[in-house]
Amino acid sequence: MTLPLLSPEEAALAVRDGQVVAYPTETVYGLAVMADDEKAVSELRRVKGLKDSRGISLLVAENSWISRYAQPPGDIVRRLMENYWPGPLTIVLDVKPGVFACGVAAPDGTIGFRLSPNMDALRFISLVGCPVTSTSANPSGVPETCDVHEVMLHFDGRIAGILAGKCGGQRASTVVRVRGDEVVVLREGPIATADILRICGVKSV
After folding, report:
1. Which among 96, 114, 108 is positioned nearest to 174, based on CA atoms?
2. If you ran DSSP here, which 8-state letter would residue 172 be given?
3. What is the Cα 194 distance to its own chain's centre?
4. Quick check: 46 and 142 in contact, CB under 8 A?
5. Per residue in 81-124, pLDDT tens?
6. CA-CA distance, 9 to 126, in Å (whole number)?
7. How buried is 16 (Cβ within 10 angstroms: 0-12 exposed, 13-18 middle, 19+ buried)?
8. Using N-to-C axis directions, what is the helix angle for 75-84 and 193-200, rounded to 10°?
9. Are 91 and 173 in contact (CB under 8 A)?
């Protein structure tokens, strides 16, 4: 069996039906389900082998989606989005209670959001109409990949298919947590810590 390559329309229909789909981004392949679908999130954890309580990062299709799901973004968040989205920056924010499935938010009530510049992914997420999960498309404990053939080997017969398109292969995104005026760079990726702090106009804490 070989996983089918899906159009954005086909991938969106599969995800809206509660299925898991792999998709390319500017960094590595991710696994998508609708972030507000309890059964689909549980299936995602089973397929990937996620056994801990860590939160799952999400991709959005537009900056404006943040205000729907997270606490009102302040000036720092808006500056980061204006300068680095779409791009390899994950912004960890406090989210509104009850908007996502159990287990998507971290125990402290935060979720990482990203807007990918990959046009295939953006089209797909726009058609889904809500944030999708962006956990990497590899079994837990196995390295991330930007090779579609590796994704097929890992998940053949276990997910609905793979969104057709090219993976960018950049390093995993820079991750920044923002709470009020506090900015913490949790992981440095393609965007340097010094650049993040310069744009924010604050010191890391």
Report:
1. 114
2. P
3. 23
4. no
5. 999 999 999 999 999 999 999 989 999 999 999 999 999 999 99
6. 10
7. middle
8. 130
9. no
Query: What residue ranges define each of the domains in the chain, with the CATH number in brackets?
Result: 5-200 (3.90.870.10)
Question: Which of the residue ranges 15-19, 66-70, 83-87, 168-172 would you say has the lowest mean pLDDT?
Answer: 168-172
Supply the pTM of this predicted model.
Answer: 0.93
Q: What angle do CA 112, 67, 61 make, to 5 degrees?
A: 65
Q: Which long-range contacts (CB under 8 A, 24 or more apart) does 178-187 make?
A: 178/74, 178/76, 178/77, 178/80, 178/91, 178/92, 178/93, 179/94, 180/74, 181/74, 181/76, 183/76, 186/92
CA distance 197 to 4: 43
Q: What is the pLDDT of residues 35-86, one digit of tens each?
A: 999 999 999 999 999 876 779 999 999 999 999 999 889 999 999 999 999 9
133 close to 56: Cβ distance less than 8 angstroms: yes
Both structure tokens of 149: 């053939």
Cis omega (within 30 of 0) for bond into 73: no
Contacts of 81 (CB under 8 A, 6+ apart): 63, 66, 73, 91, 115
